[in-house]
Specification:
The protein is α+β, with helices and mostly antiparallel strands. Helices cover about 40% and strands about 30% of the residues.
Length: about 150
Amino acid sequence: MPDTLDDQAVTDTVARFRRATTDSDIPAILDTLTEDAELISPLSGRLVFRGHTDLTPLLTLIYRPRSHLRWTDTLGTGPTRVLLGEAKAGPFRMTEALVLTLTPTGRIHRLSPHLRPWPALTAVAIYLGPSLLRYPGAIRRAASPKR
């Protein structure tokens, strides 16, 4: 892996990620991620979903059609970028700050979402909880220490 950051690759990846999430294009989202990418749950703070196998169902639930997601800004330089966005969770409007950590080659290695306000976060939990129960292996692995 190169030691120097390819800033253009990072910028391109972030743009592709933004487009893929608003289009609910899960294969395109996965294409921006490293194979061992991880998403830290904003609901628990302890669950860490890792790898394409476990991220695919989670990202499918999160970036489903009709989420009304709109990214409003991208902040940061170097390997860390923050996407600011707005969406709906049920009847609630929600804001998000999604921290992306990228590799020197420009692929996303870590996603750390921060959601607010509390009623919207609760609506997300109510929706995601039962839906994720269909993937008990992913939940078990997310709850275990890094493998």
